[in-house]
Amino acid sequence: MTPLPPHDARLDAERAADSQVRELLELRLEQRDVTAERFFADEAERIARLCHRMAERFARGGRLIAIGLSPAARSDVRHVAVEFVHPVIVGKRALPALGLTAESGHLSTELELAARSEDIVIAFGEGGELRPAVARGRERGCLTIAFAGLGAEWELVPQTDDGFVAQEVVEITYHVLWELVHVFFDHRGLLEGRTERRSHDAGASSFLYPFLAEREDDLDAVLDDVRASALMKAEEVARLRATTVLESRSALIEAAGALRARFDAGGVLLALGNGGSATDATDVVADFVGGPASRGWPSRRALDLTADTAIITAIANDIGPEAIFARQIIAYGQPGDALIALSTSGNSSSVLAALSEARRRGLVTIALVGYDGGRVASEELADYVVVAPSQHIPRIQEAQATAYHLLRELVEL
């Protein structure tokens, strides 16, 4: 009789730990689904009406002014500003937006100098100088929006104690505001104070909004369509978030283990991305350096390669935009470090160059990408690749936020 092989207790422990991590990921997804579903069920109608009010302000020459103070809030300030100024959906107009983060002085003073009566102030974070800044915006006649109790006219507050979940719901919300404010420009008769004739068509993006018929005298019908679309978008991100995390969970778990080992050995995490992905890189660094205070996690060494505009513009001007991150990796990257690169397409030349340079220098590389993963996935340019399989950029970025928030948590298990 052939003797049984010796019992491998270590293998059993590893399997048990892996099962616990997988259960944790499923639990975290469920928590996000419940919070977002409740939030949008409660707020979808108000979000639709807010889109209408924002469109009226824009139509009268107003601008969006985003304000925030904490590192995570600043990433949202920059993210919402770039979405409005540089629209990523074909056929959507650029709308004026800027971000204020107290870099030039007190936030209230910055807002006092920048704001005009037709502007829209949207506040991220809570406490500190934000409440008086929101009050200053109201005094100047601005439409005010906040995601916490700050005395704004429109407050949309996620009901959760988890800072990561709250920030993800907020990101979905400002993406929805950006996407659906455009609907009202396609109904010229529904904007108070707007006199110019319709000059824009949904064009190639019309499939996203099947309700863009001319109904200039029926505001309630358009509001109801916008409300339904907000709910639909929230459902879309829930499905994509689950697909992204569950189909890439092995990559997430293994990336977290590799990152933990690098941190424990004194390594640094470098983060990068372009546009909205640049603001997400900023958020990644904020989460690793700080993160939710309630978690009690240790601060981790991390560097945002999107932060120094002088370095980025110098490299772009003198060498080319494809080198803006690779040159910084040459300057800062060490063999014991790690890199996380965010890209919705997986094809950005600056991201590809950075991943190649990082691999040459012995950095662990992690990539969060959308669509089908692009060249990053097909050419295996990163050690760990997490794909959000969608062609809709806002939904990709929302799913990626969940992925890197979970990565942060997994590092500390």
Brief overview, please?
The chain is of the alpha/beta class and 413 residues long.
Properties at a glance:
2 domains, single chain, 5-stranded parallel sheet, 13 helices, 10 strands, Rossmann fold, alpha/beta, 413 residues
Q: What features would you describe in this structure?
A:
Helices cover 52% and strands 11% of the residues. It is an alpha/beta fold and 413 residues long. The strands form 2 sheets. The protein has a 5-stranded parallel β-sheet, with helices on both faces. The protein has a 5-stranded parallel β-sheet with strand order 7-6-8-9-10, with helices on both faces.
CATH topology of the largest domain: Rossmann fold
Helical proportion? 40-55%
What are the secondary-structure elements, in order, as H or E?
A: HEHEHEHEEHHHEHEHHEHEHEH
The number of domains: 2
Total number of beta strands: 10
In the CATH scheme, the class of the largest domain would be Alpha Beta
**Helix-and-strand structural type:** alpha/beta
CATH superfamily of the largest domain: Glucose-6-phosphate isomerase like protein, domain 1
Shape: globular
Strand content: 5-15%
Largest sheet: 5 strands, parallel
User: What is the architecture of the largest domain at the second tier of CATH?
Assistant: 3-Layer(aba) Sandwich
Mean pLDDT: 90
How are the secondary structure elements laid out?
Layout: H1 9-59, E1 64-68, H2 71-85, E2 97-100, H3 107-114, E3 120-124, H4 130-139, E4 143-146, E5 154-155, H5 163-181, H6 219-247, H7 249-264, E6 269-273, H8 276-289, E7 302-304, H9 309-318, H10 326-332, E8 338-343, H11 349-360, E9 364-370, H12 374-378, E10 384-388, H13 393-411
Parallel strand pairs: 1-2, 1-3, 3-4, 4-5, 6-7, 6-8, 8-9, 9-10
Helix pairs in contact: 1-5, 1-6, 2-5, 2-8, 3-4, 5-13, 6-13, 7-13, 8-13, 10-11
